[in-house]
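Sorry, explain these tokens?

___
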Amino acid sequence: MPICMVANPKGGVGKSTISTNIAGYFAWTGKKVALGDLDPQQSSKLWLSLRPPGANPVFNWEYDEDHPKESLSGFKNAVLDTPAGFDDRALKKALKIVDKVIIPIQPSVFDIFATQNFINTLLEMKQSKSLDIGIIGMRVDERTISAAKLAEFLNTLPFKHIGNVRSTQYYVHLAAHGMSLFDMTPSKVARDLEQWEAIGNWLSK
């Protein structure tokens, strides 16, 4: 069963946005998906509690770091949202069970610096050659200098830049109702779904 972890020790980079929309994507494709939330703020768990009854179901994953897979019987996919300041001990344990790691990053010098340090730690801890690591640019306006600087940084990395997610209020409004882009009428979010196509393809490999 594929398990995806969304991680970056920098706060406010969009980890919960990515986690909930990935869970929404798997639910939209008909997969039984579990969403775990290690962040003390419990944003993803709040999202689950707000999810409307008619939406494609996403289930809560009560993650236990000593027995992480015990509650995942019957699921086809799982997504793990992680906190800012994710400590090395907890990260090392999580890396033993996940198949893919997604690192969200915003186009700012502070995010790039913090993410580079995390990437170095992640590569040192990576034990399995089968572990896939990908990175997603968050709130990226392709017309800006900061976006160009982010692209330069991403080109230096030893793993895949999956794509960019633009800044839009859709994510804020949908999150307030426990919904993802995949719960909307496709024609209303066609531009954003195009950005997610690459993410979905990478997750499905």
